[in-house]
């Protein structure tokens, strides 16, 4: 028995606002689509996964799928969801799977239990559809006024996966009339395929807005073990007319001296993230003796730490940074610094704090000889 997953990720979706399509937006440090692929990759009954992408998204897909197993080469979608699924099914036909689970790329939190349930239902039916019974009262409205309630005892909210015996759904798509169907179950029903309803999951949300991304992050953070890591870094002032702090260029009457760009803020955060996963320190991963890191932009250090954290199954919940110096003034740049750190880590800016203090003229920071940075990172594992 061979089971394939067909991930539909060709949509452009504009409801999540400007920027990358929602399936490529960062969610807890990784693209939404990478979470979705991971759910199927880690399921023992799934043998192969094919993703339908938009032709403009080839590089975004490569980044999201980099290094993952079980993946077939992606195919380009068509003008409609129906055309995209058809293209995916035609490509999958070479693999001749027995079953196919068709799933939205923008539903990253599909539980393993639901994937198992859909496959199990195909033992007795030619199709299976994840969904949830409607429990709220459903009411018609007219001109903004409440009208009659609609009986809800036969109503379900449709989710994906929608699972089918492969030959049946391929045949149904090939013979579907020209009209636009909203999903594959509609195509299947038109072809006379019996589709069982499988109880879905409230967490199996579809990411269509920025609010959905925040909700998905909260779901992902739930129930894990909390780890904290701390980082501390110092760099000496030297000749120059600017410093780099938290990835932001700040004009100053001195520079910071270091092997890389001497961004003490990013170095402290990098060490804090590494500390929370027990992965050593920045010098272990990027030795100052290595000429590759001479003058390097320090965002690569932090991005690497974030990647190691993701690989360790950890999600960065919060970063708090304190920069310690008399000058330059940090306040005017703090928001830009938060935004830049959030961007490097692939998490929401609300999860980053950047603040500053002086040492009242005392010590090396007080004398203006150097600048120090302290960071604490909170990570959720599991
Ligand atoms: Mg340093």
Provide a concise account of the structure shown.
This protein has 382 residues and is of the alpha/beta class.
Task: Tell me the major beta sheet.
Answer: 7 strands, mixed
Give me the Rg, rounded.
25 Å
Q: Give me the side-by-side strand order of the main sheet.
A: 5-4-1-6-10-7-11
Output the CATH homologous superfamily of the largest domain: Spore Coat Polysaccharide Biosynthesis Protein SpsA, Chain A
Distance between the termini: 31 Å
User: Which regions have little confidence, pLDDT < 50, spanning 5+ residues?
Assistant: none
Strand fraction equals 25-35%
| Mean pLDDT, all residues | 94
Number of domains: 2
Judging by the overall fold, what is the CATH architecture of the largest domain? Alpha-Beta Complex
Helix-strand makeup class: alpha/beta
Number of helical segments with 4 or more residues:
12
Total strand count, please? 18
Shape: elongated
Q: What is the subunit arrangement here?
A: single chain
The proportion of residues forming helix, as a percent range, comes to 25-40%
CATH domain class of the largest domain: Alpha Beta
Bound molecules: magnesium ion
What is the topology?
Elements: E1 3-9, E2 26-27, E3 30-31, H1 32-41, E4 48-53, H2 58-65, E5 75-76, H3 81-92, E6 99-104, H4 112-121, E7 127-133, E8 138-142, E9 145-150, E10 156-165, H5 166-174, H6 184-190, E11 195-199, H7 210-221, E12 225-238, E13 242-245, E14 248-251, E15 255-257, H8 264-276, H9 282-285, H10 299-311, E16 314-324, H11 334-345, E17 352-357, H12 363-366, E18 370-381
Parallel strand pairs: 1-4, 1-6, 4-5, 7-11, 16-17
Antiparallel strand pairs: 2-3, 6-10, 7-10, 8-9, 12-15, 12-18, 13-14, 16-18
Helix pairs in contact: 3-5, 5-6, 8-10
Bound molecules: magnesium ion.
The site of magnesium ion has 5 residues, from strand 12 and helix 8.
